[in-house]
Specification:
Elements: H1 3-30, E1 36-40, H2 47-63, E2 67-71, H3 78-85, E3 93-97, H4 99-108, E4 119-128, E5 130-135, H5 143-152, E6 158-162, H6 168-180, E7 184-188, H7 192-201, E8 206-210, H8 213-220, E9 224-229, E10 257-264, H9 269-283, H10 286-294, E11 298-299, H11 305-325
Parallel strand pairs: 1-2, 1-3, 6-7, 6-8
Antiparallel strand pairs: 3-10, 4-10, 4-11, 5-8, 5-9
């Protein structure tokens, strides 16, 4: 190769590099080209919907385009996730998701057409704990009494409810059964409302439930008894309930139900960064923070995309490990 040809080749390489870098920048500058769709994979009015609608107005303002909320429920949230992933990977469709439908559903349900790796996290918004609640007439007032009762009831195991087979609350219940070394019988429900009705009515003995407003109101009213929470540090509003992970033998019983904004894994980095900034900026607004914290949520501080990717990988592996330990087998969605 002659010097002149080498110089031309080097120039072409440099030009290609500049073109690639400026293409990503140009995509970010052009984004968003139209209103963004935020898919919430549950019906309107639930905890996920509340979180999404709190951050939506300011995130829209930060992006210069309206964010349109679409509630697409069904099949434990998997219908909404699959619908969102079928859209182009350009950042124009985002998901407000949680471990329930992102990680657990593909492990527990047959026919789910995605894995958690098909998405990437661009904003970790909030987390909340779960509370171990028992029926008010069970005759126990703390976790040690519950464990003692369960061991003395081995011939007729105590029952615990969850919002469905393979749900996060099912997983936490099985982990509690394993670590406390007590027999428990799982009773799946199709949602929080019928589960709470049966727990307050005495048809089941206990459940791990999200620390949402209506649930904590029922606990405060004495319609069920709260024994402990799965948070490492209890929320200031509910710090009278002890952390289960602080008890001997239950150190691994630390679970948080988190919610975040996700996009298709192939979404350009520059677009992902723009979305991340928009949602994290919205989260710093005092009114938004106060509204989210008033319902028992812990509002997260901004994280880089690298930090978010590491967190998402760790969460995925953690839940998969627990699912394997309980021999979770995929079933048809109900």
């Amino acid at each position: 190769m002659t010097p002149r040809i080498r110089i031309r080749a080097l120039g072409a390489t440099l030009a290609a590099s500049v073109l690639l870098s400026t293409t990503g920048f140009a995509k970010a500058q052009a984004f968003p080209r139209r209103p963004i769709t935020m898919v919430i994979p549950y019906p309107a009015g639930g905890p996920s919907d509340h979180i999404g609608r709190q951050v939506q107005p300011l995130a829209s303002q930060n992006l210069g385009q309206n964010i349109i909320v679409q509630n697409i429920g069904g099949a434990s949230g998997t219908i909404g996730i699959a619908r969102a992933l079928s859209a182009p990977a350009d950042g124009q469709t985002v998901i407000l998701g949680s471990p329930m439908e992102l990680i657990m559903a593909p492990l527990a349900l047959q026919g789910v057409a995605y894995n958690s790796e098909d998405m990437k996290l661009v904003a970790y918004l909030v987390s909340t704990s779960t509370i171990l609640a028992v029926r008010s007439n069970l005759g126990v007032n703390n976790v040690n009494q519950l464990i003692a009762l369960a061991r003395n009831s081995a011939n007729r195991p105590l029952t615990y409810g969850s919002v469905g087979y393979g749900s996060l609350y099912h997983l936490i219940g099985e982990k509690f059964s394993q670590d406390a070394r007590i027999p428990l019988t799982h009773v799946p429900y199709r949602g929080i409302a019928p589960l709470m009705t049966d727990l307050m009515g005495g048809q089941i003995d206990m459940a791990f439930l999200p620390m949402a407003g209506t649930i904590m109101q029922a606990v405060s009213a004495g319609r069920m008894i709260g024994l402990g929470v799965t948070a490492k540090t209890p929320h200031p509003l509910f710090n009278r309930y002890p952390a289960l992970a602080a008890m001997p033998g239950l150190e691994a019983l630390e679970f948080e139900v988190w919610a975040g904004i996700l996009v298709h894994k192939d979404t350009p980095v520059a677009v992902s960064e723009r979305l991340s900034r928009a949602f994290y900026t919205a989260l710093q607004n005092t009114e938004v923070r106060n509204s989210l914290e008033a319902t028992g949520n812990n509002v997260m501080s901004p994280r880089s995309l690298t930090e978010l990717a590491a967190f998402y990988r760790q969460e995925t592996e953690r839940y998969r490990t627990i699912a394997r330990s309980m021999n979770l087998q995929p079933r048809m969605a109900q």
